[in-house]
Amino acid sequence: MQRTGNQAYQPSTGWLRRLIDALLNRSAVPQEQTGKPSDSARFSALSLEIAGCDKLENVLPRLMETPQRSFRQYNGLESAHLLIATRCPGEELQLHTPGAHPGRTDDLPPGVAGFVRYQLSGTLGSLDELHSLAMPLPASTEALHAIRLQSTPAEAWLMLSGPVSLPKAATATFESLSRSLGQGLAIHAAHRQRLDQAITHERRTHAAELHDSLAQVLGYLRLGTSRLDARCGRCDQPELQAIAADLSQQTRHAYRMLRDLISSSRLTLEGGSLHSALPAVVREFEQRSALVFELDDRCPQQEPDENCAIQLLMIVREALSNAVRHAHASHLRIQLLPLDNGGMHLRVEDNGEGLDMERRRGDSFGLSIMQERATRIGARFSIEERPGGGTRIDLILEDNDARS
After folding, report:
1. Taking burial as the number of CB atoms within 10 A of a residue's CB, which of 94, 157, 192, 297 is the most buried?
2. Ranges for the Histidine kinase domain (predicted)?
3. Does 381 have pLDDT greater than 90?
4. Torsion of CA 319, 320, 324, 326, to 10 degrees
5. Domain 12-195 has CATH 3.30.565.10
């Protein structure tokens, strides 16, 4: 059965609905006799919203406002501060605080955010799921209470700054909140994983269909127009020669763009990240050429989202392909450099013949393809002569907050 465009990336969500219904039924508990809602009732809606949200960084700060008020209202912790740390597969660590702009932690006491990041690289990072830990905050009489949530395949930690010894009611609330958060994050991560798998499958299906149909036709036209161009070049009709040459050039361009589209649809990130996929690309080109390749990755902790990573990987592949085929270089360097605002700077440079030689070639469509890919991910792209000879390609990918 043929699917419409609106149906293309719509995997079944019935399993998610059933899980949410189960959570609703389990959390439908009566209020305590005191009239104060139970922890389960207060936090059940939070769990459900997390499970069904699109982006955690946009939703968690708002959802955490209610739990933080609960701590301050019911447990006598007027200065309590909640914090959630999340790390999804292939992404960098993110900190979320109640009511704050995504990625901002200005409302935390001074030094807490830095302390948390440091501890998550060591003690907290190795904490077992559902285990809790309390550690004194530097230059403070308070402590950081942390528990690792059960949220596989994502990693998440719930933290609370407060007295070294929490009241019994606060401890119970903290544990109840951790269970609700863990449920929501686990369902969210599983649902996101299923969506990614469905999109990848759809892309590969479309790539196979293009390869078996349009690519064959364009390949035939490319050969035919090339022969026509060669034949017309031997006749004394300049106008006909120009038309044939243009047809041949445009057909080769269309074929190249289609092959690029098919390749990008099939491409996956080897190892699950840009930083693990780049060495694989370098090894591939080392086997295909005599160039000396150098990879300088200085920001292994910064991981763009999958779409950006794939586009960056395709830009690198196009740059390496151009250098191998056209530049007549002996050395090529790929650099990933961190930016002060959290973004990333990709640089590819060679010691070949330089930009002018490449521009004189009629088949150098790779430059425009790289520019188009950079535009898709909101990056700044530039190409220039390399000091000392050769070509330098720079791509600046700002942090999401800086781009907004």
Report:
1. 157
2. 205-401
3. yes
4. 0
5. no
